[in-house]
Design brief:
There is one protein chain. The protein has 266 residues and is of the alpha+beta class. The chain has one domain. The chain is built from 6 helices and 13 strands. Strand 4 and strand 5 form a beta hairpin. Helix 3 packs antiparallel against helix 5. The longest helix has 21 residues.
Length: 266
């Protein structure tokens, strides 16, 4: 059993801060060239969701009132997302399609396993993007490259590059939207990057992946990633749409007097 640690809040702040730096440079997110989901620090999801049952038809329930079975039906998709971001000397983060390093550059490599649903993001009533809402875990490697052509899209290649002194950096694993002491205790201590630590974290991710289906494991969906779907929309605008959605959902949740199931009428 790995040593006990759970630093999700600290990691969220560390992940979110550089993303907001893109507000100063909206060109850092060229939506006409890069349309993959971009990871963001987890943001709590507040909303009603539709649940279909064989006997009761389609119903609307507040997300926090879903049973475990209903929650798993809501989070119907599963994926592994890998993204590579380049960090300039001013701390501005640019998500790039390439997975190959350049000498003297700094990178953030993020690999997410997400069990998720998607939602639309809108600005002034117009759809501008979409977001991943779900639970899962995130592995983040902060890399400084001392060599060219290191494959940043493969964590084991990064581990070998560290061994060969081509890159150096740190590695962390975050559990997102999963509540259980067993999961907390499975999170390993933050460590320098090596083949051994990467393998240990991959094993931990496998354990957590199966535990989310066990009884007693609570699931609290978070907004974990977002992308633009409209040409010319900056990532700063996408982040703003995410926060507006979060704030509106939280307001509606706290003001609602009825969180019970409501049948959809034709």
């Amino acid at each position: 059993m790995f040593k006990l640690i759970f630093t999700a809040a600290l990691c969220a702040v560390a992940t979110f801060s550089p993303l907001f730096a893109q507000k100063k440079n909206t060109s850092a997110y060229p939506t006409d060239k890069y349309r993959e989901f971009v990871p963001i620090a987890p943001i709590e999801y507040f909303d009603n969701v539709e649940i279909a049952t064989p006997t009761e038809g389609v119903k609307v329930k507040y997300v926090k009132t879903l049973t475990k079975t209903e929650m798993l039906k809501f989070l119907t998709n599963e994926t592994v997302l890998t993204s590579v971001a380049e960090v300039d000397k001013n701390g501005v983060v640019t998500y790039i399609p390439t997975r190959i390093s350049q000498k003297g550059k700094q990178y953030i490599v993020t690999m997410d396993y997400i069990k998720f649903a998607t939602m639309d993001l809108k600005a002034e009533g117009e759809r501008t993007g979409e977001a991943c809402v779900g639970v899962g875990f995130r592995m983040v490697a902060n890399i400084s490259s001392k060599a060219e052509n290191v494959n940043l899209g493969d964590l084991f290649s990064i581990g070998m590059a560290v061994k060969d002194k081509k890159v150096y950096g740190s590695l962390r694993l975050e559990s997102i939207g999963l509540h259980d002491p067993q999961i907390t205790s499975a999170i390993p201590l933050p460590s320098e990057i090596s083949s051994a630590t990467i393998q240990a974290m991959m094993q931990t991710m496998s354990v957590i992946k199966y535990k989310m289906y066990e009884e007693g494991i609570e699931l609290s969906p978070q907004i974990m990633a977002a992308r633009a779907t409209k040409e010319g929309v900056s990532f700063a605008e996408i982040l703003s749409a995410v926060m507006n959605y979060h704030d509106l959902g939280k307001k509606n949740a706290t003001q609602s007097t009825n969180m019970t199931t409501t049948e959809i009428k034709d």
